[in-house]
Every structure is written in C-alpha cells, then in structure tokens.
Amino acid sequence: MKPPIYVINPNSSEVVTAGIDAAMAPLRMVGGPEIRCLTLAEGPPGIVTHFDVQSVAQPLALRADALAAEASAFVIACYSDPGLYVLRERLKQPVFGIGECGVLTSLTLGERFGVIAILDASIPRHLRSYGAMGVMGRFAGELAIGLNVQELAQYDRTLARMTEVGRRLRDERGADVIVMGCAGMAAYRAPLQQALGIAVVEPTQAAVGMAIARVQLGWEGC
Amino acid sequence: MKPPIYVINPNSSEVVTAGIDAAMAPLRMVGGPEIRCLTLAEGPPGIVTHFDVQSVAQPLALRADALAAEASAFVIACYSDPGLYVLRERLKQPVFGIGECGVLTSLTLGERFGVIAILDASIPRHLRSYGAMGVMGRFAGELAIGLNVQELAQYDRTLARMTEVGRRLRDERGADVIVMGCAGMAAYRAPLQQALGIAVVEPTQAAVGMAIARVQLGWEGC
Amino acid sequence: MKPPIYVINPNSSEVVTAGIDAAMAPLRMVGGPEIRCLTLAEGPPGIVTHFDVQSVAQPLALRADALAAEASAFVIACYSDPGLYVLRERLKQPVFGIGECGVLTSLTLGERFGVIAILDASIPRHLRSYGAMGVMGRFAGELAIGLNVQELAQYDRTLARMTEVGRRLRDERGADVIVMGCAGMAAYRAPLQQALGIAVVEPTQAAVGMAIARVQLGWEGC
Amino acid sequence: MKPPIYVINPNSSEVVTAGIDAAMAPLRMVGGPEIRCLTLAEGPPGIVTHFDVQSVAQPLALRADALAAEASAFVIACYSDPGLYVLRERLKQPVFGIGECGVLTSLTLGERFGVIAILDASIPRHLRSYGAMGVMGRFAGELAIGLNVQELAQYDRTLARMTEVGRRLRDERGADVIVMGCAGMAAYRAPLQQALGIAVVEPTQAAVGMAIARVQLGWEGC
Amino acid sequence: MKPPIYVINPNSSEVVTAGIDAAMAPLRMVGGPEIRCLTLAEGPPGIVTHFDVQSVAQPLALRADALAAEASAFVIACYSDPGLYVLRERLKQPVFGIGECGVLTSLTLGERFGVIAILDASIPRHLRSYGAMGVMGRFAGELAIGLNVQELAQYDRTLARMTEVGRRLRDERGADVIVMGCAGMAAYRAPLQQALGIAVVEPTQAAVGMAIARVQLGWEGC
Amino acid sequence: MKPPIYVINPNSSEVVTAGIDAAMAPLRMVGGPEIRCLTLAEGPPGIVTHFDVQSVAQPLALRADALAAEASAFVIACYSDPGLYVLRERLKQPVFGIGECGVLTSLTLGERFGVIAILDASIPRHLRSYGAMGVMGRFAGELAIGLNVQELAQYDRTLARMTEVGRRLRDERGADVIVMGCAGMAAYRAPLQQALGIAVVEPTQAAVGMAIARVQLGWEGC
C-alpha cells in the first residue's frame, strides 16, 4: 500500500486546515492514496505578505523532509505556492502547488481564467506567477474581495463579495472560468458556480486530484 | 455509484486501445470511477492527416451521445484532440483531450516541454494547438521519430528512435520534460524516462488522471 | 486562361451565398481570375456550433476535390475557417480562410483589431484561432451582437447593433480597426465604417483579394 | 478608371526598380489598377543602415504627396518599411510596406516563417519590426546571406547562398515558409522554392497583391 | 575628466529644454559626468506626427556627429525615441531613448505600467514600440490627456488632466506604475505621484540616470 | 548629505563581497551617494539551490530593517534576486535586484540577451524570472559554465569557459548582448566583451547604477 499524500497548510490556522480536510472527502477513494492534511505550526495565521510567503519555505521544507520517508506526494495548500521549488529540489516525490494546479486545471474548463483574490496586495505576486508559468495569454483578470480574515468567517457576506467580484471578472474582463485564489474556500465553490453560471475551480481540490493520479502512476524517480 | 469514464480511441486499431487499456491499470482504484476504453470503429487505422482529425469528430460525438446517459466523463485518446470542443459543447460531463492534458501536466514537471511526434506532418497542427492553448512560452520544441505504423510495432527500434529524439529535445532545444505526442505509447514511458533522465508524460494517463479527480469532485453542471 | 477561384459558403443558405457573390463585384477584373461562389448544400443553415464547424470539413473537402481539376484557388467563406487545413493538405491550389485573412488584413489597417461576432458562443473558438495564429498581442477584443439568423435580416436593427458593439470595441477596448466576424455582411461594411470612423474589414473580400494575387503569381506547386 | 498604384523603390538603383517592375507582370490585369514602379532618386544606392532607413522617409513622403492626386495606393518597396507610418498619416490612400505584407502573407503559407536577409546588420531592425507587428510567436529565425550589392549581381552565387541559408532556416530553425527579406529578388523566388521544397514569399509581389484588392474594394476613406 | 552627457531635445522649443535642464539638477553630482541639455534647432516646435519623428532623425544624427568628439553619452529627450538606432549605429558612445528607459525603469517600480500620452495620435506609435521592446505582457494601458501645446502651459489644468487619466489607468486598467509619455513634464511628477499614490516615472530623468552609470562604467567600446 | 546605498551580498563569502566592492569604484562619485557593500553572515557560502534562495530572504529582510534608518537604497547582489519583493514591501527606500536590473539594462544594449549561468540547476529558476518579468520575447538563451566555486577562482579557466559559452549564445542562439548571471564576476566583464565583440552586462554594476539615479531623484515615498 502506498504512503499518504500530505497536504500541508502553510498557515497556522487549524480552521483552514479543517476546511481543506473536509474538501478532500470526494477525493478519498478506497483504493486510492490516503490524503492527510496538516497545519504548519510555524506558519503565520494567514499568508498575506511576501515575507509570509518566503518565511514558510524553510519550515515547510523541514516538515516535508521529516515526512518524506512515508509520503507519496506533497501538496502545498497556499495559492502563492510558497516553497514549491524548494520542496521539488529536495524530494523524490512529486510536489504540487495549488496556485499552479488551480490555474492549469482552469485551462481545461474555459478559454480565459479570472481569479478571485482575498486582498489587493497579493495580485502583483500572482501576476508574476502567471508570467512565470507562461499563461498570461489566457489570463482575463484578477480582482480582490478585500475582506480580512475575521470577515471571511461571515459566510453570506463573503459569498456575496465573491459573487460580485466573479461577475465583474465575467462581464467586464471576459473570464469564462474562475479560479478561487486562496486555499480553503471549498465551501463557496458550488454556490459561487451556481451564481455565476461558469465553472469555478477550487485549487486545493485541483492539486490533490493531480497528485492522486501522479501517485498512482508512479512517475517519480527521474 | 458513479458511471464510468469512457476513454475513446478515435482510431480503429484495437491494438492501440488494448495498449491504452493496459496503461489504465494504476488509475483503477477500488473506490474510484470505472475506466472503460473503447475503439471508434468508424475511425481510420491511424489519425495522421488533418482529414483524419476532422473526420472522427462527428462519429466521436455520436458515440459520446449514445454513452452519455451512463458516463461520468470522456477522454479523447488522440494527441490532436479531435472533436474536443464538439463534445464539450454537447455534453454535461467533463471532456478531456490527451494533447491538452499531456501538455498541462508537463508544466508541473519541468520548465520547458519537448514533444516527440510520430510524423513530421503532425507538428504544424500541434504547434497551432500550443498557440491556441497559450503555452508557447514554455515550448522547447517538437521532433518526429518518423516511423510508420508497422515500424512502431518494433519495440527496440521505436524506443531507440524515441530516445534519440528525446535527447535532441533535451540537449539542443533545452527541454526538461518530454510529452509523448501520441496515445498508446505507455509501454515506452518508463524506459524512455530512464534513458533521458528527465520526466516523460504519457498523455492518456495524464488525461484520465485529471478526469478521475473531476468526476470525484462533481464540478460538472454549470 | 486560368481556372476560377471557388468561394465556398459552407452553410446551406443561398441568400448568404448571394450576398457574398454580390460583394465580389469589385474584385472581378477583366484580366483577373473568375470568381465563382458556391453553396455547400450539405452544410447546416448557419454555422454556429463546434459541431457545425467540424461537420462541414468533410463535405467541403469532397466538394473541393471534385472542383480541383478546374480551380486555381479556394476560399472558405466562414469566419471559423472550417476545414482550412484539410483542404490545404489535399490540394495543390492555395486555400484561404476568411477568418485568417480578415485578421491578417486588419493588421495593415490598425494597431489593435476588434471583432464583431454574431453570437457569444463563437467567441472562445475565435480566441483559440487568434492564439493559434499568434496574433493575440494585437487583439483588442471581440463582442457579439447577439442576433439570430432571422433578426439578421432586419437591416436597420442589425446595423444599429453592429455600430453599438463596434463603438464599445473602439472606446472601451481600444480597437482601431474592426473585423466583421462573419461571412456575407458585406452590405454593412461601408455604413459601419462611416459610423465608427475607423476601418472595417469584410473578411471574404479580404480573402478573395489575397487569393487573386496568389493565383496571378502562381506560387503554388511547392 | 482608377488611378495607378505607385510602387516606390526608396533606393536609387534603377536596376532594382527594373527588377521590381518585371516582377509585377503577373499582377497587371486588364481590368485591374495600373502598377507604376518608380525610383526614389534621393535615396541611397541601397538601404542598409538605420540612417538610410530614416533618411528616405521624408523624400518618400514628398514624392507620395506629389503623386497623391493621381494615385490609388502606395507600396514602399523596401523590406524595412521606411516611412510606412509617415505616408499612412498623410495620405487618404492605402499604403503598404513590403516587410509587413511579406510576413503577413507568409502566415497563410506556413506555420513558422524564416527570413533571408542580405546583411547581418539588418536583422535586429527586422526583429523589432516583427515584435512591433506582434508576430514573434510565428517567427522561426532570420539569417543573412552576407553578400554586398555587387556580389548580388552574380546570379548563381546568390542563389546558392540563398539556398544554403534557406536550408538552415528550414532544418535548424524549423521554418516551413521563407520570406525574402529584400525587394527585387523576384528572379530567385521560383528556383529557391524549388530547391527548398517549401513556399517562398517575394514581398513586393505580396504587397502589391494586397494593394490591388484594397484599391478594387475602395475601403479607404475612413 | 570625462566629457559631458548630451541630452538633446529634438523639438525646437527652448522652454521644453529649459524644463529638462531644470529636472537634471539632482543628477548633477560633483564627481559625475556633466549633463548638457541642447535644443535641436532644426526640429519642429513639438514632435507630434510620424513625420516629425522621422524628420528629426537626420539632424539629430548630424548634431550628435558634431558633438561626438567631446561626448560620453547621448540621451534623446523625446518619448518616441526618434533616431535612437541611427545614433547607436554611428556612435561609439552609449545612446539612450527616454521612451525605452522610461518603460524599463517602470518595470522596477510596479507590475503593470500605464502611460500618460499627450495626444491620441501618438498611442499606436507607442504601442509598436512596446511590442518591439517585447514588454507588452507588462503593459496596462495608455491614455491621452488631449491637450495641445498651448494648453500644456496651464499648470493646474494639465495636472488635473494627468491626474484624471492616471486614475483611469490605475483603476480601470490595473496600472501600478505610471510613465509620463513625454519629455519635460518633470514639474508634474511629484504632485502626480502624490495624487495617485503609485510611482510615476519621468522618462528623461530615468534615461539620464542610466546614462550616468554607463558613462562611469565605461562599457562602451565593443 | 544622503545616507548610503547598501549592496548586500546574500552569500557569506567575503571574497565575493570584496569583488563586488572593487567593482563599485567607477560608480563612487564625490557628489553621489556612498556605496557600502556588506556580506550577509547568515547566508550560505554560495547561493545555488532554491533552498538557498529562499533561506536568505528572512535574514536579508532583518538586516535591511536594521539598516533602514540610515539607508537610501538597497541592492541585493545575487542574480536570483532573493527577497526582492520582501524588502520592497517593508522598506520605503527603493530596492533593486541584480537579476532584474541586469536584464533590463541589457535591453538597451542589444536585441536579444543571452545569459551565462554558473550551474545548470539555476537556469529553470532564471527562466521563471524572465517569464515573470515578461521579457521572454527578447531572450536568446542561457547556458551554464558548469564550474564549482573552487574552480571559479581559476581566472584563466573561468574566462575560457565564459568565452566558450558566450560564443555559443552569440552564434547558436543569436544573442547580441550577454548578461553575466552571477554577482561578483566584474573582473571578467571587460575581457569577455573583448573576446565576444558584443556588450557584456555586469549585473551588480547595472543595479547600483540604477540605484544611484533613483536615490538622487528621490522618487521613493509613494
């Protein structure tokens, strides 16, 4: 039996990890790899700044090192993909970033992807990622809902803002598929898709889905 | 229990379908969706020309229509993604093309993807696809092995040619991940990766892997 | 004397073919190639869906085959360029798609091209074509007038909608040249250009113009 | 009857103009516009440097001004398109540059265009043009034959060099269509295409072909 | 001691040169190169049309030739970079265009640059420059203030228009850094940045800053 | 008098810092900002892996914080630009990365830049940076000299390898300007340029040159 896939939430919020864990339910198959969701205790409560993104790379790497003997893949559950290449260079297992996987998955669901960010300050960082990925030709736009962490707990208000921003991406920027630019928003995916009438990608689910296939195929080792 | 994923080989070669079917083994999980591989009897023995690509779209659509009541997803097992958008517009289920999924998957395994084609004549068609996908900024090159269908049956010779072409893509064009530009070459993936020392993507496996996740997540319906 | 250029309308609407034929008048020169406009009887009344686009490729190819002995060039008179590469691979004569030629011609008339589509559903398909053509860096935007075939017969209403959409492309998206994203709208070109104050390209005329030169030059044969 | 199209050779070499004039023969149709080829007496013997390119813009503009009352279009017969936008801004007639038209025409004949330049020094200037045109995604490469003006008169040697450079563009850079990066090489087009087995575009013919259609259609005036 | 950097204003307006000269104050360092600002007497009062841009290249080159014996670098103080490559090909000293340097400098200050132009007619020319520079992927938009030369003398009105246009670039187009698309607007830089809250680049200062470093480093000579 | 510019070498090798310091000589002007070169004691001996790049971001940020009260700008002297955005988000002073500045500067010296890397493993990371910068359209290629740190101390051997790699970039990839992809190679710049005959950019000098101008202009504060 294969060792588990580790989904590491690099912020220290257990509630976010719990949300991610719940979102994994449909991807847990009897004959498939176990999916274990962990919280990086050393991480900040939320990953907002560039400092946050950089600061979790090292503890993420150490955590992954410690788990490597009994892991079949790693998923970094933050849309900024902190430490993605650090983990890739030191582990023989496949490593997935939810930002990368969310965007790539969206390319199979629409022609131009729009992204809903939490805060404006993250958008330039995300733009650099899309440039580095070479997919700016498919990018429709990215807009932030502008809520802080406490406000995010208010379900109706958050969904309303996500819907509003999603409509602007669809109608003003021409997006025909939406990527949720944050981990752990899985609870909003279905109602948001319902409200917008276009596909909505939850990036952690997208990444774990790709990880499961990779683990089953056993392509690592080169 | 969810209905099966249908992997349709749009050429009429049962041996190709059998090869695809064998390659599905690691993706068949007890709790996951069933994977059924079919041959499009109406298809040509191999899909080589633009005429071949176009001519299978309609029978593929009809076949998918007939299966739709009991299907959870469709995978079109030809690297030229024939009929991909035709099926997408008429089915509520997710539809995957192995060309699209093979390339997108490669973007998580390397910085610049190279492609091994069967014949030179297909390369311009593939280039248009990469342009349409908006990923030319990640494209290293594509080279053909130049073997006809009968010659492809010669395992050692084919592997030698693939290895030679893969080395040129790696050394002369800077590819650090290889996509096999054809369905049903799964038997060559592991030895080719071993010979080249860089990851090799088998596109049908890549596509079915993405399909399994999509089926489990049930994102269809928008 | 050279054989004629065949302009094939791949939908079965004779009225559309008649409109195309009328638009050819200025391109019919005494010493130039004859221009014959045909209707593809097997085609659907209008080419709207991806299925429509794919389904006409084969009858188009057969029709072109039948005409090949006495043709000097072919023009496919549908903005989605159905069957373009199918015809190119089987004919020694040059083959032109009005989508491709309309866009390329617009690049000599302005810096950023905007496109007026009939229906929203065609826009993603057109975007993939522009990506495949490698001209997305010159693309300003594409918007649909959203009229069905019957409504298109209402001249004033159609012109009003085209003018409205053209103004949005010019003012909101920065287009300084407009491509009409459909065959047989030649009757609207001059008044639309008059209303917008920027050049408007009628794609069938653009394509036939390029075809005449190619026939006169006799570059085919490689 | 419409006034003539003026093809202005911006270098002062009458022999180049004579070659251009001869190449116009197939484009002279009884019912089509007259094509008059002129030499810009103020131009340098050949346009090699950036200084040359810039220095001819003003006399070109004055010459075009003087002809404007009796002209239906202008073609600037130098691959660097000197003065193209100067003429476009001051004339109501359409103005074509052979560099722009040569490249756009090549996009209908192959997937990746290669260019044969005369001298290495022109290549960076041409690259900027392709960038400005937004077509770098279709660009295979550009190589110079490295002959001076006197050597160009040696037919066999020049053809041999063009063939050699064309083969490198085809085999090493992946070009499947060649643009001749200079006016007045029409005499080499057919044998070069014969030798290379891929289409070769003579840019002045390409540009005049587009001009004829534009004149016939009478789109100017916006 | 090194010879001076010459900043040449290619229009004939001494008041513009005086404004540029005043803006050089902070870049004049005791141990650094002298900065001399000159007016091109042969230039038009303002550089507006393509004709203007082309027409100053030759007198600029002659002026630079005359100064070359005692110059360490040249800066062409017009956002359209007239004659940039002409000067580069004939001088051993480094030559800078303020358009090029303004945009490159902006790329270190923000993720997407917006440009404030004087007149709409210049925008397509600028777009071609950004395309030639290969930086369209970082371009947010360009809008004109639409004031003529006389109106530009009205400080408050001009600042109000620049602020309004800058806000549109920031809010509607997503610019997070602004380039002033004209020489000699240095007086507006600080208040405009204050009003917009994002960095504003004055391109002549940007170019002279790069020139000083180049002169000190003495990289010329290859 | 303005406070100094701090050039921080994020690896712990004092000899590298000494080389950088020596290279600053021409940029030290009497009336210009002081340039102080520091070694990040917490850094690894050399920055090779992704882990190295990430691990220095936090100590770099703390070091910059400590210096911020008396600094006018910061330059991060590692071609991978570690911590660039971390420092930018927390400091009011301008912050420069030598990778970014080296490439931007090269765009004023040639049409297509080639990069000489130390090790193959860094090249994919650099490619992502160029993609994020949006300048891949100007990129000719990057090749590594493949020497380890000890071997780099051998002057003649290193110069020979750099020359060999530079020639390949120039002749096989079409580079007409070279960027040295590492800090502290200033001693090789002049002889390498001499050997190659095309401009060579030393990135720390390029970055500090841009920093001096920014400090003098005082654009910070928005």
Automatic annotation (TrEMBL), chains A, B, C, D, E, F:
Protein name per UniProt: Asp/Glu/hydantoin racemase
Family statement: Belongs to the HyuE racemase family.
Listed InterPro entries: Asp/Glu/hydantoin_racemase, Hydantoin_racemase-like, Iso_Racemase_Enz_sf
Taxonomy of the source species: Bacteria, Pseudomonadati, Pseudomonadota, Betaproteobacteria, Burkholderiales
